[in-house]
Write a structure and sequence with these properties.
By secondary structure, the chain is mainly α. It has 2 domains: 1-77; 78-294, Cytochrome c oxidase, subunit III, four-helix bundle (Four Helix Bundle (Hemerythrin (Met), subunit A)). 71% of the residues lie in helices and 0% in strands. It is built from 7 helices and no strands. It has helices at residues 15-38, 44-73, 79-118, 161-184, 188-219, 227-259, 269-294. Helix 1 (15-38) packs antiparallel against helix 2 and helix 4 (161-184) packs antiparallel against helix 7.
């Protein structure tokens, strides 16, 4: 049994190597899908690579986190190890903040600098000679090279599906907080109900996001090939959607562990880490709703 003076050192593990292989295959697949898709080539091989990588990642996550859970349940972790987990999760979320900051920065640069320059504004306004008849507006519905990048026929109205999704995510942040407080008070039934409600709200968000994408592609011709507006729209909302799916998976695992009797009012960092991540996902969506849909 570990004490506050001891520090658990795990045995050598295969999981970091498996994670490297899985993540590499997944990213290679995603990159190939984007490149080959933009060039009008077949993306079948790229999708196969992506799904193989995703399955390897799923296997790694199941095995690695299963090992961590067994070690924790065996009482091998000390207070010092708990602090290490907290710092690790904090830095992970910080890295995710920087990840999205880069894409928000790209949106800001394109919208406030590159597009106005192409329209003849500012010190670099001479850039407009590339496309003399180009009119700089945002959202960009009149691309400077429409033959290569067909302009979308419209944009997603923010006060319909995006607003509903905002309500769903904000509500889910409330429900997961209630579940967290129920765990601190050892109200097991209440935890299950409110955590299940959080998962239902999250799945509702994913369903509506998919419906929005179908509408964008089929009705508005708003795709990844729709110029800078389509690119920033799908990259920001798409990566956020992937994070919502990951967060939903984390919360689902927490619900399974609650049903198995895991966690107690004093020791429940696994649940706490999942709730931290979910709040991060909610905050990012608020930024997306304002800067991508509304403004």
């Amino acid at each position: 049994m570990a004490t506050t003076q001891s520090y658990y050192v795990p045995a050598q593990s295969k999981w970091p190597i498996i994670a490297t292989v899985g993540l590499g295959a997944t990213l290679a697949g995603v990159a190939s899908i984007l490149v080959e898709g933009s060039q009008g080539e077949s993306t079948t091989g790229a999708w196969v690579t992506f799904f193989i990588g995703a399955m390897i990642m799923a296997y790694m996550l199941f095995g690695w986190f299963g090992s961590v859970i067994r070690e924790s349940r065996s009482g091998l972790y000390s207070q010092q190890m708990d602090r290490s987990f907290r710092w690790g999760m904090s830095w992970f979320i910080f890295s995710e903040v920087m990840f999205f900051a880069a894409f928000f920065g790209a949106l800001f640069y394109a919208r406030n600098f590159a597009v106005p320059w192409l329209g003849g504004a500012g010190d670099r306004g001479s850039s407009h000679i590339l496309w003399e008849n180009f009119q700089a507006t945002w959202p960009l519905l009149n691309n400077p090279d429409p033959d290569t990048f067909p302009a979308p026929e419209g944009i997603i109205e923010p006060w319909h599906l995006p607003l509903v999704n905002t309500i769903l995510l904000v509500s889910s942040s409330v429900t997961v907080t209630i579940a967290h407080h129920a765990l601190k008070n050892d109200h097991r039934t209440k935890i299950k109900l409110w955590l299940a409600a959080t998962i239902v709200l999250a799945l509702g968000f994913v369903f509506l996001q998919a419906d929005e994408y179908i509408y964008a592609y089929t009705e508005l011709n708003l795709t990844l090939r729709s110029g800078i507006y389509g690119s920033t729209f799908f990259i920001l909302t798409g990566f956020h959607g992937a994070h919502v799916i990951l967060g939903t998976l984390m919360l689902s695992i927490m619900l399974i562990r609650i049903h198995k009797g895991h966690f107690d009012p004093e020791k429940h960092f696994g649940f706490e880490a999942a709730s931290w991540y979910w709040h991060f996902v909610d905050v990012v969506w608020l930024g997306l709703f304002v800067f991508v849909y509304v403004l």
